[in-house]
Amino acid sequence: MATLLENKVLHAHVYCPMCTHTVEAEVVQLTDSAWNRKLKVAPGQKCRRCATLLDAAYILDVIGPLNG
User: Is the whole-model pTM more than 0.85?
Assistant: First the structure.
């Protein structure tokens, strides 16, 4: 298993599959090599509208870095 080089937290719009709305959430950029970059919703976040976990949410649009 590859080790992670960096983890960046970004702000994004994600699609909640339970209430079918677009909500804002934090996503994590996982990098294990120069060519392999993945975006995943940060674990444990809940939807603002229906309070279900966003672990299975689809990332629609990355807004930018979390701190600015």
Answer: no
